Task: structure prediction
Amino acid sequence: MGIFSTIADLFFPPRCVFCERPLERSERGDRVCRKCRRELPWGEELIPPSGELGRVCAPLVYRDNVREALHRYKFGGKMGYATPFGRMLADEIKRRFDGEYDLITWAPVSSKRKSERGYDQAMLLAAAVALALDDAPVSTLEKFRDTPANSGLGSRREREQNVSGVYRVVAPELVAGKRVLLIDDIYTSGTTMRECARTLIDAGAESVIGAALARTAKGME
Ligand SMILES: [Zn+2]
Result:
């Protein structure tokens, strides 16, 4: 470790992305502390296919520290969380979907949302995932109409109407005949991912499977 990073550590000790506790030297590579590794709400099962969307893996359950960390990532400017989140999700993808996809893409936010927030959290996550898998993310979708956040809506029907027809494929030649792996940060009701999958399949993709860092607990859908 260089002198500058050593000095910086005195003032800004690297903290666990989930519990924000300063990390031991040995924990710093992953930016996740041992206690969180042990105690985070890990999800076990794959989410079954629905509509045009195939199976989805999500290593974590969206609650407690996971919920707070994702909130800091999306709304608190903690863009750097993309790297540890991406590594974690890449491990899960390797374990679940190795050899089952041809390209990695993501469910984009609208340009309005992106300019308000300054970044597209799903794109950053997809970039970090792809890097950890020695791959490169491919931009395939555009969200051309801004919609209210789905999390503020009640019924599944409302959520579906909210995102219906708001995506388009930006480069159909890149998705034609391809098995696509779609990345998003959180899987809630699956509405967003299903709509992205439908749009990709309509443009000629062979299949779409998904990977999200966290999913809401069963019963919250
Ligand atoms: Zn921790």
Notes: The beta strands are 56-57, 60-61, 103-106, 141-143, 167-169, 179-187, 207-215. Residues 16, 18-19, 21, 33, 35-36 surround zinc ion (CB under 6 Å). The chain has a mean pLDDT of 90.
